[in-house]
Design brief:
alpha/beta; Rossmann fold; OB fold (Dihydrolipoamide Acetyltransferase, E2P); 3 domains; 5-stranded mixed beta barrel; 14 helices; 21% strand; S-adenosyl-L-methionine; transferase; metal ion binding
């Protein structure tokens, strides 16, 4: 659906764009693909809104805080829009898909609302606004995103995200993703392999396969294709050094996939598999489709077959009905599993989800306290686990200059540890060995070895 209203009387051609992204890796890749399309259409990317003819926000709807932040940014543009009415302001992504026309009502100075399946038409939509008017609403739940990737347009030459599927069919009670991203659609192995080969030919060494529910990759494709099949095909590509994938849903993670990962040399020993809670009662209310014992067994099996694997997780605190006892079960699970790191969030109701009908009966004060407790617990676990690597040599893909010290390099191990080490920019894009001599909860520090 594309609708247009109002007129913008301006003949100046837009050729500068400011683009800001909020949210997950999928949003970051959508931003990369969008900017590639705009650059091919002649747009120059600028770093300040005052320099831009087009201002675009790629949004997230998973939590209320993310939406509030976008609306704050949009509100700050009212003065600029009055001074320069020809500037085009657009909202893309999940929030656009969810709120649609309501964004125009709340922020009348916004010109474009573009949903999650329509960003591939950005140059056309912007031109439509330029020629015919503002308030263009572009939302289509059935449109299939199929962007021919411009491989040269990506932030890091040696790494790349690759979408292998979109959407989610799980409908966890708290999650807005199925409603804004749609049902699961998988790309063919041949299509993914062609893109990865093109990226490798352009210098890429490491890819991260993306899917809202990547374990169910292959659903709808002929021949019973699975994520394991895709990983096996990509593992054979010459020039590709590392393969990662996110995000894994425990209910769809199979032991067969774990066995496949254990025998593939390029698939990294890192698993991001959100548990969300350590309480069976809360998991049932969340409609997660697994028990805590099932989750524990999966982790145990993965560690048995892949001894050096590191596991990351997500947790939500303060879900409706979460008692102190439920929360203590989550604490126990974190202490037992000893995750490498965790993303921990306070529950916020999302309109349209099943959980929005539940009473939000955990006070914000308790949510904050539980959030802080888990953050502190994870910080301590991460520090203890990282210190175990002091004195060891780890393999690192050098990604570039460290943000904290530009005289040093930064990269990641196969297990996704961040490592800062000495070395010139000549090492960027290479796999190097680093002797670790210091560790914090977030970062390892070391020196290059031969």
């Amino acid at each position: 659906m594309i609708t247009t209203s109002h007129n913008l009387n301006n003949d100046t051609l837009c050729k500068t764009v400011f683009f800001e992204t909020f949210g997950c890796q999928m949003n970051k890749l959508d931003a990369e693909l969008s900017l590639g399309l705009l650059q091919e259409d002649g747009y120059k990317i600028v770093d300040a809104v005052d320099e831009a003819d087009v201002i675009l926000f790629n949004t997230c709807s998973v939590r209320q805080h993310a939406e509030d932040k976008v609306y704050s940014h949009l509100g700050a543009l009212k003065t600029l829009k009055k001074k320069r009415p020809e500037v085009i302001v657009g909202v893309l992504g999940c929030m656009a898909q969810k709120d649609g026309e309501a964004i125009f009502k709340r922020m009348p100075h916004v010109d474009l609302v573009c949903g999650t399946r329509m960003f591939s038409r950005l140059p056309e939509l912007i031109l439509n606004i330029r020629n015919h008017g503002s308030h263009v609403l572009a939302i289509d739940e059935d449109h299939i995103v199929n962007v021919k990737r411009a491989v040269a347009y990506r932030p890091n030459r040696y790494q790349a995200f690759v979408t292998v599927m979109r959407g989610c069919d799980n409908y966890c009670s708290y999650c807005i993703v199925p409603y804004v991203r749609g049902r699961e659609i998988s790309r063919t192995i041949a299509d993914v392999k062609e893109e990865v080969q093109s990226l490798v030919s352009n210098g890429c060494k490491e890819i991260t396969l993306l899917g809202q529910n990547i374990n169910s990759y292959g659903k709808g494709l002929p021949g019973g294709v699975t994520l394991g099949d895709l990983l096996s095909e990509l593992d054979d590509l010459a020039g590709l050094e590392r393969i990662r994938f996110v995000t894994s849903h425990p209910a769809d993670m199979s032991r067969d996939l774990i066995r496949t990962i254990s025998r593939l040399g390029k698939v990294c020993e890192h698993l991001h598999m959100p548990a969300q809670s350590g309480s069976d009662q809360i998991l049932a209310r969340m409609r997660r489709g697994y028990s805590v014992s099932y989750y524990r067994d999966l982790i145990s099996y993965a560690r048995e077959l892949i001894p050096h694997i590191m596991v990351a997780s997500d947790f939500i605190v303060g879900f409706p009905g979460e008692t102190d006892a439920d929360f203590q079960e989550t604490v126990r699970l974190m202490e037992e599993i000893r995750f490498q790191n965790c993303f921990i969030f306070k529950y916020s109701p999302r309109t349209g989800t099943k959980a929005a009908g539940l009473k939000d009966d955990v006070s914000d004060e308790i949510k904050r306290a539980r959030n802080m407790k888990l953050l502190e617990l994870q910080k301590g676990i991460s520090l203890e686990e990282n210190k175990k690597l002091i004195g060891r040599v780890v393999q690192v893909l050098a990604e570039g200059a460290s943000k904290s010290d530009t005289n040093k390099l930064s990269g990641r191990t196969r297990q996704n540890h961040i490592v800062v080490f000495n070395g010139s920019l000549d090492f960027v894009g290479r796999l190097v060995n680093v002797l670790i001599h210091e560790a914090t909860d977030l970062t390892l520090f070391g020196t290059l070895t031969r």
